[in-house]
Design goal:
The chain has helices at residues 18-27, 37-41, 69-88, 98-106, 168-176, 244-258; strands at 6-11, 31-36, 52-55, 92-96, 120-122, 130-138, 153-159, 163-165, 180-184, 206-210, 216-219. The chain is an alpha/beta fold and 259 residues long. The protein has a single domain, classed as Rossmann fold (3-Layer(aba) Sandwich), CATH 3.40.50.880. Strands 2-1-3-4-11-10-9-6-7 form a nine-stranded mixed beta sheet. Strands 5-8 form a two-stranded antiparallel ribbon. Strand 3 (52-55), helix 3 (69-88) and strand 4 (92-96) form a beta-alpha-beta unit.
Length: 259
């Protein structure tokens, strides 16, 4: 692909972090377009116009019933065929925080089974909303464009329902199929279940997963909130060669351009 990938930043009632996500993709060399889900329902816009579908963080529909559930029901009810075609034609899907919760509830993650939930994201073990920076590290996974990110990444979390939970057989399947992309780690880079390094109690310290193609990715942390050095709380003390969120988005954009 010689042109810049075009990103659909999907909006619904209650969405936030959409402008942060658009800015991060633009810095990484993509073009972005804000599309409200009602525009898709009225067929004023189509997913086929885009190479990347990005579901931002926020509180879609006020997190009524459960985080991301109403938006997930809407996507399955009205756009199931469109989503399947988008994925089958090598479209890339990213869900951040509330977007991740939505992808899990649609069934797109982890096993690309629209309409079937295999896992969930539930209340933080701490019992309250977590809003701070944490550390995560990349695993060797079905998303190989992250394999060279061997450093510990500082990322922001902002969620009350971020604990990834699933039956043991599902967790084992995630491990076996190499679908775990990111884990929460301690200062030594070791996966941890310890609070506060693991902000929500996610099983096996899982912070982000992908599907078997690596083209559908979801994570609870917000890499888009650290794409400029001054966004980090310790930016005066740390000497970042490049903001960690930039590293994240540059790899996605490069992967889409070259695949």
């Amino acid at each position: 692909m010689k042109t810049k990938p075009n990103v659909c930043i999907l909006r619904s009632d209650g969405t936030n972090c959409d402008e942060d996500l658009a800015f991060a993709f633009q810095l990484a060399g993509a073009t972005t377009d804000f599309v409200h889900i009602n525009e898709l329902r009225r067929r004023q816009r189509k997913l086929s116009e885009f190479q990347i579908l990005a579901l931002p963080g926020g509180f879609s529909y006020g997190d009524d019933l459960a985080s991301g559930k109403v938006l997930a029901v809407e996507l399955i009810s009205f756009f199931k065929d469109d989503l399947q075609q988008f994925v089958e034609k090598n479209g890339y899907v990213l869900g951040v925080c509330n977007g991740f919760q939505t992808l899990i509830r649609t069934g797109l993650l982890p096993f690309d089974a629209l309409g079937t939930m295999s896992a969930t994201l539930t209340n933080n073990d701490s019992g309250h909303f977590e809003c701070r920076f944490v550390r995560m590290k990349t695993e060797k996974s079905a998303a190989p464009y992250f394999d060279d990110l061997e450093q510990i990444l500082d990322v922001s979390v902002n969620h009350g329902e971020g604990k990834l939970f699933a039956d043991k057989n599902i967790l084992d399947r995630l491990e076996k199929q190499r679908l775990v992309v990111f884990r929460y780690v301690d200062e030594k880079g070791k996966p941890t279940m310890h609070y506060p390094e693991n902000p929500n109690g996610a099983l096996r310290a899982i912070a982000g997963i992908c599907d078997k193609t690596g083209r559908i990715l979801g994570l609870m942390p917000h890499p888009e909130k650290f794409v400029e050095v001054t966004q980090h709380p310790n930016w005066r003390r740390e000497h970042f060669t490049k903001p960690h969120g930039q590293l994240f988005f540059e790899r996605i954009v490069h992967f889409v351009k070259t695949s």
